Each structure stands twice: as structure tokens, then as C-alpha cells.
Amino acid sequence: MSDKILLTVGLASAAFLVRNLYQMFMVLPDEAAQGAIYRIMYFHIPSWFSCFTCFFASGLASGYAIWKKNFRGDSLAVAATEVGLAFTAIGLATGMIWAKIIWGIWWTWDARLTWAFITALIYAGYLMMRSMIDDPGERMRVTGVLSIFAFTSVVITYKAIDWWRTQHPGAILSFRTGGGNTDPAMEAMIYQNWFALLLLTVVLVAVRFRMEESRREIEGLRRAVYAG
Amino acid sequence: MDQRNFTYMFYGFAAAWLILALYVVSLVARGRKLSEQVETLKRTIKQEKA
Fold first, then answer.
1. Which of A39, A54, A186 has the highest number of chain B CBs within 10 A, making it the mutation to test binding with B?
2. Domain spanning A3-227 has what CATH number?
């Protein structure tokens, strides 16, 4: 992706984020029971959607990399995973701050939160494992398989509120409930902010992808230096 | 705007932006370090060939 396209997408993301912040604070109504803190949901839910998207992309890229023996696919997988982990951290942090006010506790080991934490650990493990394997081909295969299977944890995290009774609230978005749980304007803002974060995700993944390609170039050059 | 829990709402937004900012800063720093390594290695190879 060229610098010009990246800059355009980055600027579009910034513009959407500023516009969304204005809408969140100046236009959208307050939530009757929660007060101002409900606005954390406008970042909490889109952050989780963004990280799930990243982990899905990572699984697809890993599958492609293993199938075609394509190192660029491997680079895309690691880039998407790392950006996904940043959004996971945002999801966990914002969720904990919201929980402190609404539940009176920072954390509880219910099924949704526990699986979210496990998902974060698995993908953090994926990144750590990469630094432990020297051979690029083996690294691509081993961590690629892990990335594909790790997506199971994402699915369990997503479905945990349906499969178990959790402290975490149940589904609130209309595509899962059929409507009636959330004000349409508030729900629309969740999607709009997800869109803005997705644009930012594209930029971050592209930048991280370039870095991974540089790292691969360095590995090749080092081999050339040692061989020479 | 309803002022209830405003402080914690601020913490939530601050945490989100802080994590993003830290990640971007780490990307920039690591990117710079990698570029320097590529340049150094290219120079070394050039010198060895010469």
C-alpha cells in the first residue's frame, strides 16, 4: 500500500474519530441508568470488534501463508495479530473501568471475561513464540497453525454470553437481539466508531506489515553477511 | 450532559487513547531501529564486496 493511500486512510480515520467524539459528547443523549460512563461502550465494543477482525485476518493470512508458502502472508498475520492485541488491551482496560462503576469491581472471572483474557494470552503467546523460532519457514508453519486454531478462542469469547450465565451483560446490538435493547442512534454510533477504528487498523497493520518485511530483509542480509 | 460517573468515563477514554498512542510510539521507535539495521547491514555487505 503506497504512502499516499496510507496517509489518506489515516486522515479519514482521524476525521471520523473527531466527528464521532463530537457526536458522543454533544449530540447523543445520556443513558438513563449509567450516567456519562455508558459512553465508554463507544470505544469498548468497537475495540473488541476491531480485535476480532484482526485475529480473523491473521488466521486467514496464516492459512494462505502455509498453503502457498508465502512469507508476505506470514508478515500480514503477525501485523494483524499485534494490532489486534493492542485493541484487546483497549477492550480489557475500558471494560474494567466501566465495570468498576457499574458492578463495583474491576474484574470478575466470569466466562466472557475469562475467555477474553485467555484469548489475549494465546495471541501474546503467538508473538512470543515467533521470537523463539529462528528458521523462517518453521516459524511460519508453527505460528501459522497456532493463529488458525487460536481463532476458536475468539469464537468462544464472542459466544460466551450466549452459552453461559455471565456477569458481563448479554447481547445489546440489534443484529443479535432483533432490536429493542439499544437506542438506534446509540447503536449507530457503535458501528460508526468501529468503522473509524477499522480505518485506523488498516493503517497500523500496513505500517506493522512493512516492519515485518524489513525484519525479514534483515534476516536475509544477515545470512548474506555470515555466508560471505 | 449527565455528570454522573464523568471521572471514570474520562479514565476510560484516556486509557483507550493512551494505549493507542503508546502502540503508535512503539511502532515508530521499532521502525526506526529496523531501518538503521537494514542500512548498517547493506553498508557492511557493500564494504565486504569492495
1. A39
2. 1.20.120
